[in-house]
Amino acid sequence: MTKTVRKIITIDEELCTGCSECIPNCPEQAIQLVETPNGKKARLVKDFYCDGLGACLGVCPVDAISIEEREAEPYDDNATIERIKKVAPEMLDIHIKHMQEHAQGTPEQHIHANPHSFGGCPGAQTLQWAKIEATTTESVRLQSELQQWPIQLHLVSPFAPYFQNADLAFIADCTAFAYANFHQDFLKGKAVAICCPKLDDVQTYILKIAQIIKTANPKSIQVVHMEVPCCFGLTALVKEAAKQAGSNIPIEEVIIGVKGDKKTV
What is the architecture, at CATH level 2, of domain 161-263? Predict the structure, then answer.
């Protein structure tokens, strides 16, 4: 395969702790953990699995991942899809959404690369659109449906009474700003904890969510997050927390588009 100079991620093995947080945040599943004399380390599986857009940037707690420009094999989307089907079929929809976000103006040799790409996490891309006016001119003042405080996952107590036997909702921060009917659809009648799966301490949150689930005996669990790739990590960490808590409660996933629409899972 002919090589070309392009952007691609690089992983500093001296900094890497082998925590694996980058793996669920890579829509292409281009990263794997390998055993080395210095313990487990994250490495690229193959250059052609990495699209170089950096969806995994920002999730590494020790900043071991960065983007460099070097000679590498061109990104191969067909090979990537085949790999995803084998190693993580649940990530295929995430990969497709990621591909659609960057499909316009794609060079033939790199199906994902947008010539106006910002070169970082797709969730940090600057976007703007015209406001769609509501069909009704009548203004209605709605009542808040929030029934607890605090709401930040970092601050809540796993033993808080409002979690006990409740319908739990673990919610990504940005969804409340994107989705207009947020209070009625996602807060009403629920005990909530909000967080950012990209910027916050994922390992700490897995432990806390596991503790909440284990002690609260919830009626149901819902995860609400944005459509950007790095936000899908919230579902993964809640599932891992439920597993650690020994819970078999089904986890409902709701995806909110950046324009405020509710996506189907």
Answer: 3-Layer(aba) Sandwich (3.40)
